[in-house]
Amino acid sequence: SLSVDEKRVCFEYQKGFKKSVAGRILYLADFNPSQAAMTNFKPFANEDEKKIWFAYPRWTRDQSAVVYHAGRKLFLHTTDTGTTEQVSTNDQADYRYPHGEATPK
């Protein structure tokens, strides 16, 4: 996902060629649109490659945080502080495919 100001990206990555959605690591990186280049890669979720579905990172409108899906729940990772909190409220629901259009920030 490209940030609104087009200076940062968040994305999921899985080492090697595996046909599996579980075990992906979520990253933040700086983006230079004039060179179409990413730098300063930093993992922010699932660094130990747990076999849980970590996916769909999306920026909040104010670019202060990333919303993502992990194990049927939604989480909010605040980039300035590096803190992560669960924001989904119903443990019986499946919160896959978040997009962030109506995020509170």
What does this structure look like?
The protein is mostly beta strands. The chain has one domain (8-86). It contains no helices and 7 strands. It has strands at residues 8-13, 25-32, 37-45, 54-59, 65-70, 73-78, 84-86. The strands form 2 sheets. It has a 4-stranded antiparallel sheet with strand order 4-5-6-7, with no helix packed on it. The protein has a 3-stranded antiparallel sheet with strand order 1-2-3, with no helix packed on it. Strand 5 and strand 6 (73-78) form a beta hairpin. The radius of gyration is 14 Å and the shape is globular.
Q: How far is the N terminus from the C terminus?
A: 16 Å
Number of domains: 1
Number of strands: 7
Helix content: under 10%
Estimate what percentage of residues fall within beta strands: 35-45%
Average pLDDT number? 87
Q: What strand line-up does the widest sheet have? A: 4-5-6-7
Secondary structure class reads mainly beta
